[in-house]
Structure to design on (165 residues):
């Protein structure tokens, strides 16, 4: 019997996910040039250079902050320091890889699943000879992750305490 895989297309890659969503194959990534990866100034910014999004995670990002330099400071130095460094220098954001892990393996935390999943979840990225771990936890009031994020391949850390109610 043949296993059923679902294909998800994103702007920078394609993901094939197995039926129970515990394995995902990420392909179609474009390698970043080596000379960017050794440039410390490039490490600071994101894929779109110094552009700051107006929408982040489905919500307006800093709608009351109009000064572009202040928006850039918040985005690149407070919220997302060393974006390209964690994504492409120590991360595998420009590699093709396979992710193995808990159900909904491409979700960063249980809050991202539908319906939300409480408890610990895990994943591991296999990029050729390299194996990169990822753990996450969500219980409704605490959201945590650490490791190489399954979707982006970038190293990340998050700890948020949500208000119940």
């Amino acid at each position: 019997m043949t296993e059923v895989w679902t294909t998800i297309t994103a702007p920078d890659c394609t993901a094939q996910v197995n039926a129970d969503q515990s394995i995902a194959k990420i392909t179609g990534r474009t390698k970043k040039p080596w000379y960017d990866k050794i440039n410390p100034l490039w490490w600071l910014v994101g894929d779109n250079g110094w552009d700051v999004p107006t929408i982040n995670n489905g919500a307006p990002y800093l709608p009351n902050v109009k000064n572009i330099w202040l928006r850039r400071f918040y985005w690149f130095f407070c919220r997302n320091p060393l974006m390209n460094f964690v994504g492409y220098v120590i991360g595998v954001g420009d590699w093709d890889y396979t992710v193995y892990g808990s159900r909904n393996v491409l979700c960063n935390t249980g809050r991202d699943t539908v319906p939300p999943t409480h408890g610990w979840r895990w994943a591991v990225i296999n990029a050729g000879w390299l194996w990169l771990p990822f753990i996450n936890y969500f219980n409704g009031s605490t959201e945590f992750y650490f490791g190489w994020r399954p979707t982006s391949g970038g190293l990340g850390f998050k700890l948020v305490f949500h208000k119940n109610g």
Remarks:
- The chain has a mean pLDDT of 91.
- The first strand starts at residue 5 and ends at 9.
